[in-house]
Amino acid sequence: MKNIKNTLFSHKTVEIGLECGYDNYIMAIESSCDETACAVVKNGREVIANVVASQIKTHEKFGGVIPEIAAREHLESINVVIEETFRQAKENANIKPDDITAFAGTAGPGLVGCLLVGLNAAKTLALVYDKPFIGVNHLNAHLCANYIDTDLKPPFMALLVSGGHTQIIDVKSYAEQYILGETIDDAVGEAYDKVARLIGLSYPGGPRLDKLAQEGNPKAYKLPEGKVDGYNFSFSGLKTAVLRLVKQLKAELPAGETELPENIVKDICASFQETVSKTLAKKLRAALEEKGYQQVVIAGGVAANSEIRRKIFDFGNDGYKVFAPPMKYCTDNAAMVASCAYFNTDTFDDVDVEVFSRVK
Ligand code: KG4
Ligand code: ZN
């Protein structure tokens, strides 16, 4: 539990989080990258309203997220997304703006111009309704997606895999978490997106590559696993190996042909996916065994990946309890931000908090 002061006018203290003795309804906004999202969550676990406006259609045209365009699109969507969230909250649970206990927003890491839109909207709501404001770390929020609709409680070992991060995190308690290892170069999602582009798949590359991989032979090509100590990862060597393989296979095409046949593309995808998922599962398992935890969670956009999920859910055969958010809470959303504002005490409970692009 944490005591947080209201933002501006009354300065009364509000209790938020576990054991505060009454129901908390937190409204959160997420805008760190290419989804404008708003949600209301009751007591960190029960989603009352959840709205996500995706910018995929816009960024598809450019083959990736252009920060300036993303920020403008957040500005265009934010009010509609907030209004729709309030409408759902009223319809689903008769929750009105005044019933909201606190307003939360993602402070970072992310694209600064994008973060500014959501964070300022959340701060404004806190000021207008005279409620506390809670700034949330996007990475902590991804982990908290696992609290939604479950009874998960720390301690547990976590694998966070997103477009910008790859980390193994020891979650000792709601407040205390330690990064045991992370990527020394590319994040998993980044590697997925780069390899996808290399083989000619359009944005968003990760999920498309995953789909093709499911139809290919994972043993078709032997690709190198990044060799780094402990719980750290490296994916740039693997990416370069795929680049070389694609070049070599293209050189072997009959004269006049420039595109690789579909079955070969599927085999490349499957072999890449096999290598990545094997590395992630191996290191996560080692960390889990070292700490002696019985629970393991995966989180972040790449946790939507079919093979990574399959390999980690297999830990269940050895008695581990495995948690992974449903697809809609793996990729960016605001329900996880609201849950984080409730459970995690490592938040920025101050209306003056500024956005940040990288983890400090
Ligand atoms: O967590 P997220 O939505 O945004 C960040 O905070 O980065 O993650 C986005 C990343 C992208 O790199 C996307 O390609 C990847 O998650 N991703 C996937 C899958 N679904 C999303 N990567 C592999 N397989 C998937 N099924
Ligand atoms: Zn994310």
Q: Structural class of the helices, strands and pairings?
A: alpha/beta
Task: Give the N-terminus to C-terminus distance in angstroms.
Answer: 24 Å
Number of domains: 2
Which molecules other than protein and nucleic acid are bound? 5'-O-[(R)-(carboxyoxy)(hydroxy)phosphoryl]adenosine, zinc ion
- CATH level-four homologous superfamily name of the largest domain: ATPase, nucleotide binding domain
Work out the helicity level. Answer: 25-40%
Order of helices and strands: EEEEEHHEHEHEEEHHHHEHEHH
Largest sheet: 5 strands, mixed
Strand content: 15-25%
| Tertiary shape | globular
CATH architecture of the largest domain: 2-Layer Sandwich
**Which stretches are poorly predicted, pLDDT < 50 over at least 5 residues?**
none
Average of pLDDT: 94
Description:
The chain is an alpha/beta fold. The chain has two domains: about 1-150 and about 330-345, 2-Layer Sandwich (Nucleotidyltransferase, domain 5), CATH 3.30.420; about 155-325, ATPase, nucleotide binding domain (Nucleotidyltransferase, domain 5), CATH 3.30.420. Helices cover about 40% and strands about 20% of the residues. The protein contains eleven helices and twelve strands. The chain has helices spanning about 55-60, 65-95, 110-130, 140-145, 190-200, 205-215, 235-250, 260-290, 305-315, 325-330, 335-345, and strands at about 1-5, 15, 25-30, 35-40, 45-55, 100-110, 135, 155-160, 165-170, 175-180, 295-300, 320-325. The strands form three sheets. The chain has a five-stranded mixed sheet with strand order 5-4-3-6-7, sandwiched between helices. The chain has a five-stranded mixed sheet with strand order 10-9-8-11-12, with helices on both faces. It has a two-stranded antiparallel ribbon with strand order 1-2. Strand 1 and strand 2 (about 15) form a beta hairpin. Helix 4 (about 140-145) crosses helix 11 (about 335-345) and helix 5 runs parallel beside helix 7. The longest helix has 30 residues, at about 260-290. It starts with a strand and ends in a 17-residue tail after the last helix. The model has no long low-confidence stretch (mean pLDDT about 95). The structure holds 5'-O-[(R)-(carboxyoxy)(hydroxy)phosphoryl]adenosine and zinc ion. 5'-O-[(R)-(carboxyoxy)(hydroxy)phosphoryl]adenosine (KG4) binds near residues 164, 207 and 332.
